[in-house]
Amino acid sequence: MSATPMSPAARPKLSGLGKLIAVAAATIGIIYGYDQGNMAGALLFIEKDMNLSDAGSGSLNSVLVAGNIVGALIAGKLSMAIGRKLTMVLVAIGYAIFALWSALSGDIVTLDIARFFLGLTIGLSLVVAPIFIAESAPAQIRGSLVVGYQVATVTGILLGYLVDFGLSGSGNWELMLGLSAIPSVLVLFLLFRLPDTARWYLMKGRTEEARKTMVRADPGVDVDAEIAAINKDMESERGGGIGEMFRKPYLRATVFVLILGFLVQITGINAITYYSPKLFEQMGYHGNASTLGFPSIVQGCALVATIISLFIIDRFGRRPILMTGIGAMLVASVLMIVVFTTGDLQSGSTLGFIGIIVFTAGFNFGFGSLVWVYASESFPARLRGLGATFMLTADLVANFIVAQFFLPVLTDLGGAATFIIFGVLAAISFVFVLAFAPETKGKPLEQVRFFWQNGGRWPSEQELASHVDK
Q: Is the dihedral of CA 393, 399, 401, 404 positive or negative?
């Protein structure tokens, strides 16, 4: 395969099926992002209606993350058993049902149960949506569609804040939580028109359906060559197990992705996503225009940072972007410590507003855009899915801790102590990436995997040649 990039004119255009897949994936991404972000504003009004403590408020987000963990753990087997498409249909149905259930909840227990099942749906989506996109799209535009899903997710978070802001005058938290049911129902009609992925059809021995799907997705594809490539890839995926992940030569890579996945969330990004209005109140901002409007601006900046990162990653490499993003989070934590120790918190802190923007944009520029790349590059095909699952599980466990304990820590210890903790964790992340994360820009997957098998050291040409010969 030639390494020469295709000219813009030579890039394939999306087929009719490709456009449907892109729209469906973007819609699911927006719904997921919206359901992640809409609780931030709704929580201000739910707390008043239900007279919640900080622990009760935290449960509304931590129970969502607990559902994420369950959904992510069952997603792989479910999508293998019933298909990627049908799992996506279940995701859309779940989004609709549990958004409405949340909106109709009259007490905290009922709302927590609805949020758990919404979280389970999100967990399924986190695993299956990227798989569905990657397996459905033509190879030449697969990356851009996966990137588009990430951008759609950040866009959904921004929309969640904007809707909360728009409805803040009425305090209608029920509508804030329930609105995502509308696009969830609409996307069902689109999903029903899609076939499953060619790869899943081949896994099930349904070769003719795989052929038809390939031609619909990419009319210019060499079907026989594509089928042969998929079958070869599936053959290479067989035989991997959890035990192999914790033995040499893959133990080092396993430990790396587990720690990196945990650091992604424990550094505090979802404290901002889930609780921005509460944080802005702590910084002295008052009124819905400030506590909901300013967080919307923060998420808009996060979206811009995500897009910039995705445009420059292949030019500057992974490590510089990842370390720049983490460095920005560290600087932002220092700014927030200064704000809470020396600032005037009676009328709102401009420096604090800047600090939150830098923190969120830094995360999306670095961790948010790049972390999953390492899970896919660090293992051979037979262990790649397990590697991604391990990283996601570590990520969600840390997310649960932040969701449950951020508000009590902020209230009991104060903003300065809270951001000292986040600053220390960001510093640890920076040192960890500096010491252990390889620069994989332009490296073939074989070389990247051999880096981990070689004790975290890039192989010489002779070593690599010997490894390949074996």
A: negative
Strands (E), 92-189: none
Q: What's the pLDDT at 360?
A: 94
Measured distance CA(178)–CA(104) in Å, rounded: 8
| pLDDT value at residue 229 | 80
Q: Is CATH 3.40.250.10 the classification given to domain 15-194?
A: no
Distances (CA, A) of 32 to 107, 129, 162, 275, 396: 24, 10, 15, 17, 15
Ramachandran assignment for 442, one of left (phi > 0), alpha (psi -120 to 50 degrees), beta (any other): left
pTM of the model: 0.81
Is 242-470 the same fold as 15-194? yes
Banded pLDDT at 445 (limits 50, 70, 90): low
Domain ranges of the chain: 15-194, 242-470
Q: Return left, alpha or beta for 171; rule: phi > 0 is left, psi -120 to 50 is alpha, else beta.
A: left
**pLDDT of amino acid 2:** 33
DSSP string, 168-224: TTTT-HHHHHHTTHHHHHHHHHHHTTS---HHHHHHTT-HHHHHHHHHHH-TT--HH
Lowest average pLDDT, out of 93-102, 117-126, 221-230, goes to 221-230
Q: What is the pLDDT of residue 444?
A: 66
7: which DSSP letter? P
Assign domain 242-470 to its CATH architecture.
Up-down Bundle (1.20)
**What pLDDT sits at residue 4?**
36
Q: Provide the token pair at 446.
A: 């074989």
